[in-house]
Amino acid sequence: MSNWLGLSGRTAVVTGAGGGIGKAVAMELSAAGVHCYLLDRSADLVDAAVSEVTQSGGSATGAVCDVTDESAIEKLAKSITKCDILVNAAGLVRPGALADLQTAEWDALLKVNLTGYFLMARAFTPHLVASGNGSMVHIASISSTNPQGSSGAYSVSKAGVVIMSKQLAFELGAKGVRSNTVSPGLVRTPMTEAYYQVGDVAQRRDAAVPIGRVAKPEDIADVVTFLTSDRARYVTGADIVADGGFAQTLMSSVPRPGFGD
Ligand SMILES: NC(=O)c1ccc[n+]([C@@H]2O[C@H](COP(=O)([O-])OP(=O)(O)OC[C@H]3O[C@@H](n4cnc5c(N)ncnc54)[C@H](O)[C@@H]3O)[C@@H](O)[C@H]2O)c1
């Protein structure tokens, strides 16, 4: 069982690798013997991720790459000789109700969270096809099916990522490339850390999740790692929800006298 995943010797490109989920994915893939290209938008974030992976015994190369920069992505894809795995995890969230949202804010978020995923998928598809068992995993969100209020185009971007992945699965299946999304619920990462610093938000968030706690980035990285491996060889076009049951709590939020508490 020590090499159950069978990922040793493969190469992965991970975006958002300086962040919570991206870095956890990089740590798990590298621990499984995968050489990881770690991409993020600043040298500080990239360097920190590379040293964390290498200090734990993994193999990694860093690259500063903004996922909205089409030519930088194309150049990077051409400079890499091999890629079996692509993990799209670069993303952001910004506040704003749709009725008041500026067009520029709408465009800016979609450019990173949706177009950025597309640009990466398109640029690395030739490598994934050449691999013979290529796998893309895109981090979506349960907000792709549950509108996340006051978050501008965030939910729209995630819904777009889910259907983009399904289309890629259809188009690339015969070429030996799988495409899946992982939809996390609540995860404590640099993106969300500020919320947890306010009052009793951390406890209230833990209590809102049936499993009893908000996710750690590793909870999501485990699912991603499985999907990248041949153990998931018959899984493509799927959206795997990893939310501790949080999206199943809707019917329990309404009063129903005589039925439990
Ligand atoms: N944290 C959560 O609760 C949660 C829940 C569901 C989905 N997600 C999604 O998971 C993914 C990872 O989020 P996270 O929580 O680890 O956030 P994070 O902020 O910790 O990491 C995201 C990383 O993406 C990078 N990034 C942002 N814009 C970029 C750009 N233009 N080019 C290159 N890199 C860029 C950031 O620098 C950051 O390091 C995101 O797509 C996010 O929407 C997060």
In short:
The chain is α/β, with parallel strands linked by helices and 261 residues long. It has helices at residues 20-31, 43-55, 70-79, 103-131, 154-172, 193-196, 201-208, 217-228, and strands at residues 11-15, 35-40, 60-64, 85-88, 134-139, 177-184, 239-242. Nicotinamide-adenine-dinucleotide binds at residues 15-16, 18-22, 40-41, 45, 66-68, 89-92, 112, 116, 139, 141, 184, 186-187, 189-192.
Helix content: 40-55%
- Mean pLDDT rating: 97
Instruction: Output the helix-strand order.
Output: EHEHEHEHEHEHHHE
Total of DSSP H or I helical runs spanning 4+ residues: 8
- SS-derived structural category: alpha/beta
Task: Give me the side-by-side strand order of the main sheet.
Answer: 3-2-1-4-5-6-7
> Termini separation (Å)?
45 Å
Bound molecules: nicotinamide-adenine-dinucleotide
CATH architecture group name: 3-Layer(aba) Sandwich
Overall number of domains: 1
Task: Describe what this molecule looks like in 3D.
This protein is of the alpha/beta class. The chain has a single domain (11-186, 217-241), classed as NAD(P)-binding Rossmann-like Domain (Rossmann fold). It is 41% helix and 15% strand. The chain is built from 8 helices and 7 strands. It has helices at 20-31, 43-55, 70-79, 103-131, 154-172, 193-196, 201-208, 217-228; strands at 11-15, 35-40, 60-64, 85-88, 134-139, 177-184, 239-242. It is globular and about 60 Å long. The protein starts with 10 loop residues before the first strand and ends in a 19-residue tail after the last strand. The model has no long low-confidence stretch (mean pLDDT 97). The structure holds nicotinamide-adenine-dinucleotide. Residues 15-16, 18-22, 40-41, 45, 66-68, 89-92, 112, 116, 139, 141, 184, 186-187, 189-192 line the site of nicotinamide-adenine-dinucleotide (NAD).
